[in-house]
Amino acid sequence: MNALVTMNYVIFAIVVSLFILELGVALVSFIDYSKYKNRIMTYIAPVWEITGTFSVFYLVNLAATFPGALPVIDTLYVGPVLLAALALITRDAFLGFSELTGENWETKWFFRIYGVLTVVTMFLLFSVLSSSLSGAAVNLASLAMSPVQLALNPFNIMLFVSVLLLALSCSVVVLGIKPWGSWLDTAAMCGLMALSVLVLFTGLWLYVPYVIADLASAWYLAVPVIVLFLIMLFVYVKDGKYPQVTALAFLIYGIFAFELIEYPSLFGQAVNVMNYITVPPISTYVLVVSALGCVFLAAALGFFAYVRYRDEHPRPTRMRKPLS
Fold first, then answer.
1. Residue 314 pLDDT > 60
2. Which of the 8 DSSP states describes residue 276?
3. Which of 178, 136, 142 lies closest to 160 in space, CA to CA?
4. 3-state secondary structure string across 296-315
5. 66 with 278: CB under 8 angstroms?
6. Is the pTM of the predicted complex or chain greater than 0.70?
7. How do residues 203-217 score in pLDDT, each as one tens digit?
8. Going from the N-terminus, what domains does the chain have, and what CATH number goes with each?
């Protein structure tokens, strides 16, 4: 695979993984915000701004990597993308205000508005993703798109339901939620994950069958996904450290592997992405800048997470011995 495409796919996998985890945390807040508030904010505080920045970074990288695709993307999807951007900006504002207000009821409802807008943002973005994958709701010849079909086509609904289940199962790990305190917690998490996979594969089999065929020939890509899931499950069961890292690694690789299987086709195999890619010497410049930007944002995310962890787990103060 082209190095520039690989970099674009990696950035996409990071962005989608961060959004999925935020979506899961938002879903947990709907279930019992008061009970899990501290855990939710411990996770959200370091990542919410980086998530938005990474999404903008991906859009810039997408435009630089596939400049030939911009007329198609802008014409077909400018509406849902702009609405998603508006929802993203508004939800970030409500999250910020939820921490500044002094009233408990305002904090709770501001955060729930943040959660609703997170769901809206994800639904809009995955509507674009499902359409670009299956070709549903679009006519490439006339560059026309039906908003109703974009949102309500069966493949989009199945994909989004799968994402909701995946987000909820991963958020259980990230937040360390164990409502029953027994093996039922592990069974519920695994059940949500299994149901998510079942819904996803059913949708792919019905509406994008070529992906299933490609998956059969690239089965080895699923091995690391299974290994990373088992590591995440072990951390969850044993209350191990850094559950966020294991969940994020599982999602990033899983999404990246799916992109590798789907490459190079889009719109139900009607389009080859390599027809739109940038050419040297610009491609080298884009690759270097994208790699540096990706490292910088990942380092910022790690730093903010470390600061939050340090504040939540202060080191014990050492007592100095008195001078004799």
1. yes
2. S
3. 136
4. HHHHHHHHHHHHHHHHHCCC
5. yes
6. yes
7. 999 999 989 988 888
8. 3-309 (1.20.1630)
DSSP string, 10-24: HHHHHHHHHHHHHHH
Cβ–Cβ < 8 Å for 265, 271: yes
R_g over Cα of the chain: 21
Structure confidence by residue, pLDDT tens digits, 172-190: 999 999 988 888 999 999 9
Please give the Cα distance from 82 to 245 (Å, whole number): 31
- Residue 185 CB-density burial (10 A; 0-12 exposed, 13-18 middle, 19+ buried): middle
Distance CA 49, CA 60 (A): 17
Hey, what amino acid is at 177? Answer: I
With residue 74 as reference, give the H or E element that holds it: helix 70-100
What three-state secondary structure class fits 266? strand
- Please enumerate in sequence order all residues whose Cβ is within 8 A of that of 3, keeping only pairs 6 or more positions apart, or say none: 287
Helix (H) or strand (E) holding 139: strand 138-139
Q: Are 166 and 250 in contact (CB under 8 A)?
A: no
